[in-house]
Amino acid sequence: MSPAHQAFHRDLLQIMPAARIHTDPLSTLAYGTDASFYRLRPQIVARVDCESEVAAILALARRHRVALTFRAAGTSLSGQAVSDSVLVLLGDGFNHGQVLDDGARVRLGPAMIGSHANALLAPYGRKIGPDPASINSAKIGGIAANNSSGMCCGTRDNSYHTLAAMRLLLLDGAVLDTGDAASVAAFRQSHAALLAGLSGLAAELRADEALAERVRRKYRLKNTTGYGINALLDFDDPVDMLSHVLIGSEGTLGFISEITFHSVVEHPHKASALLLFDALEPCCRAVSALSAAADAHGVAAVELIDSRSLRALHGKPGLPDFLARPFGPDEACLLIEARAGSEAELERHCAEIEGLLAGFGPRLSSGFSREAAVCDSYWALRKGLFPAVGAVRPLGSTVVIEDVAFPIPLLADGVARLTALFDRHGYHEALLFGHALDGNLHFVFAPSFDNEREVARYDAFMQDVSALVAGEYDGSLKAEHGTGRNVAPFVRQEWGDAAWNIMRRIKALFDPDGLLNPGVIITDNDRLHLENLKPLPAADPVVDRCIECGFCEAACPSHGLTLSPRQRIVAWRRIQQLNRDGDAGEELAALRADFRYRAIDTCAATGMCATRCPVGINTGELMKRLQGPSPRPRAARFAARHIGAAAAAVRAGLALAHLFGPERLHRISLRLRRRHKVIPLIPAHLPRPAGRLPAAIGGDGEPVVLFLSCVNRALAVDAAGGNAAAPTLALLRRAGFNPRYPPGHDGLCCGQPFVSSNAAEALDISQNALNRALLMASEDGRHPVYLDNGPCAARILSAQRQGRLDARLRLFDAARFLEAFVAPRLAVTRKLEQLALHIPCSAAEMGAVKALTRLAGLCAERLTVPDIACCGFAGDKGFTVPELNAHSLRRLPPALPPGCCHGVSMSRTCQIGLSEHAGFEYRSIEALLDFCTTPKSGPL
């Protein structure tokens, strides 16, 4: 650490908790990456939670002449969220949102994820305008700072055009809230020179009529190259110029601490179609026609997919039959989405679009589909093009995704010329696709940066792309991904000296010493795009395809506590590289010292990261393997053969704990854990032992095999010691079923405990016994099998897919069985006023989310579903690593509406942690339905 950074660090410790300041090798390595192909290792990482901390850090930066870079989610693709100085992360204090004017506006903190903002607006039929592909991970601060757009956003609904107000901090510590008249008035007095400087630049730009017209023309395209100097033309008030030039400034001019957007309509009726053209030229002419008629015909999005991309999609599930074949070199496809406010209007729009396109001779068309599943499959194919390259790239290479924009009339020629550049420079794996309605094209390729020749090849390619797009076509080198480091050396080439000098002077007005995100957007280093290129060395086949995009992080319960899946992979790659190099120095020792707890022990290993990963990587698989084999395989084998005795022992232990007092045990275990992390934490809401299982034999209904998980056989569902089987049996019988237990049910287990402990032999024992019992009870698969606990159901279904359980078994998780066969036979006779639903990881893994949500919705006047992808209880980690559960559920209480005192889930262990942190009991979906329903009248 440099002397200046040491002084900065000492002063920072006086104003922020040390727990939110990181200088250790593992943290600085982990945060030294974003979604781009650059890596810079910060000397200090600080997580800020409020404006006063940001202001203090800005003051320290000025005092010590230390550079700062602000980061939201780190999903930026152009290197604008990495630093070799001080990296400032947005903490929970900036994660907030408020709907205004019945949904017409929304006020958001910069740490809120974009999709969460849309969830706030959904009840009003509205959404935010920007819709980047990363919206489920990207945060509002990054979306605004990059002026991100997306598939449907276009140039009209981006952050720039939907900005209603902004609260910001400048380098000198000044706070401006453009939605507060008093703040604006005070700022006009205190910063008259800054505002005068902006007005002067605006006057200078307007006086140059040719340049002014060029600026207007270029911003009719998507354009995020350089600063948004269109703000100098679009507004007369320098305060408006200031707030709008902050949009897309990538943290180089100030810090956005809050933003208010005008929302846009989220049309309820949508349809999508795929059309194949024999040649690119008529395909692009069709795009021009669609662009001209977009508003009249409800055209929301048009995606162009070139022939190389079509070949990359070959064999993917969801592909229409007419695309499941070889393609010629000039064929192209359009994916079109139409939207409308009513079904009749949508029908009319679809007919109009089909009539318009008929004149351009598409060879084949899927026709417009209104089925959500079909439309989702089409768009999943389009979104899968980026990972299609990442999944097959050579080991050690990286993935570059760039985006440019051509004037729409020149789109066909631009596509052909770009394709020729791929071939000229030997990037034959490159795919080209994009938001054709705006002339915006993405291209993805996999260069290797492991030697100077490859770096020189990449540089030559970028020089040619710049000359083509910016020089010949006067297009945008960066349409929506932000300038970053990759295009900063080319900003002057795209804009010319006059516009470039205006941009330089804007930077000087706000940041005369170049302390805010130096090198990004404005640079004199014409080789910046070739420096600090990120290595992606081999680490393990499970994670080698990772491109470090960060999409996984929003679903990870340990992100922000220890490490995220992306950071675990970054660290393991570095450790493996150091091992291969024979470097046993201080860095390797430091990384290994922290890796066990921060990477392995605190990984929930539930696989939620894989559900968000573009290439399906389950980082938990690697962490479980690194955990090593079970240290007590003999004990595990004994437990597998004596599950009934183990469950009885648990019940006895729970009974003893309740005699002693759970709250007292909680306090004692909490004190002991502060000194010895191996001591498990006893929850204050420790469940009571379950009572004796009720009988499940008898009745005249349809047979169904009821497999009760061992956790539900051991843990009571209420303070009276009730058993989980009671509401389940009552519900099934009420619906006309005759439930039966498998033989020896008290000694059966799904095997999940042995998977978690890597006890392979014990797993085989338990699953073989389960397979025999279920086959016998179901009469070789004749009768369905009801699996009552989500994680256990997921484990059993996974075992069947792997061939460990007989394929004849008809296995159902609780949610899907209840929705398909039980709920239709029951009448909901009472509803809870408020109900909170937790969707466990297992429900997402099994595809049971919609079924579970619909069932819960039947029983509540108002259903709240907090966006918590994984609660972090993760089997027994809620006891052994309770900080993981607490960290993941820190956002639960604020997400619950006032007066909510009922919760539901389909995982018994999740219910323990949820009850602990919500302050009220979470119960099973069976208990909820048992409480709310009666049999329907008439024959079943």
From TrEMBL:
<dbReference type="InterPro" id="IPR016171">
    <property type="entry name" value="Vanillyl_alc_oxidase_C-sub2"/>
</dbReference>
<dbReference type="Pfam" id="PF01565">
    <property type="entry name" value="FAD_binding_4"/>
</dbReference>
<dbReference type="InterPro" id="IPR004113">
    <property type="entry name" value="FAD-bd_oxidored_4_C"/>
</dbReference>
<dbReference type="GO" id="GO:0004458">
    <property type="term" value="F:D-lactate dehydrogenase (cytochrome) activity"/>
</dbReference>
<keyword id="KW-0411">Iron-sulfur</keyword>
<dbReference type="GO" id="GO:1903457">
    <property type="term" value="P:lactate catabolic process"/>
</dbReference>
<feature type="domain" description="FAD-binding PCMH-type">
    <location>
        <begin position="38"/>
        <end position="266"/>
    </location>
</feature>
<keyword id="KW-0809">Transit peptide</keyword>
<dbReference type="InterPro" id="IPR016164">
    <property type="entry name" value="FAD-linked_Oxase-like_C"/>
</dbReference>
<dbReference type="InterPro" id="IPR017900">
    <property type="entry name" value="4Fe4S_Fe_S_CS"/>
</dbReference>
<dbReference type="InterPro" id="IPR009051">
    <property type="entry name" value="Helical_ferredxn"/>
</dbReference>
<keyword id="KW-0560">Oxidoreductase</keyword>
<keyword id="KW-0285">Flavoprotein</keyword>
<dbReference type="InterPro" id="IPR016166">
    <property type="entry name" value="FAD-bd_PCMH"/>
</dbReference>
<dbReference type="GO" id="GO:0071949">
    <property type="term" value="F:FAD binding"/>
</dbReference>
<protein>
    <recommendedName>
        <fullName>D-lactate dehydrogenase (cytochrome)</fullName>
        <ecNumber>1.1.2.4</ecNumber>
    </recommendedName>
</protein>
<keyword id="KW-0479">Metal-binding</keyword>
<comment type="similarity">
    <text>Belongs to the FAD-binding oxidoreductase/transferase type 4 family.</text>
</comment>
<dbReference type="GO" id="GO:0008720">
    <property type="term" value="F:D-lactate dehydrogenase (NAD+) activity"/>
</dbReference>
<dbReference type="GO" id="GO:0046872">
    <property type="term" value="F:metal ion binding"/>
</dbReference>
<dbReference type="InterPro" id="IPR036318">
    <property type="entry name" value="FAD-bd_PCMH-like_sf"/>
</dbReference>
<feature type="domain" description="4Fe-4S ferredoxin-type">
    <location>
        <begin position="535"/>
        <end position="566"/>
    </location>
</feature>
<dbReference type="Pfam" id="PF13183">
    <property type="entry name" value="Fer4_8"/>
</dbReference>
<dbReference type="InterPro" id="IPR017896">
    <property type="entry name" value="4Fe4S_Fe-S-bd"/>
</dbReference>
<dbReference type="InterPro" id="IPR006094">
    <property type="entry name" value="Oxid_FAD_bind_N"/>
</dbReference>
<dbReference type="Pfam" id="PF02913">
    <property type="entry name" value="FAD-oxidase_C"/>
</dbReference>
<dbReference type="InterPro" id="IPR016167">
    <property type="entry name" value="FAD-bd_PCMH_sub1"/>
</dbReference>
<dbReference type="GO" id="GO:0051536">
    <property type="term" value="F:iron-sulfur cluster binding"/>
</dbReference>
<keyword id="KW-0274">FAD</keyword>
<keyword id="KW-0408">Iron</keyword>
<dbReference type="InterPro" id="IPR016169">
    <property type="entry name" value="FAD-bd_PCMH_sub2"/>
</dbReference>
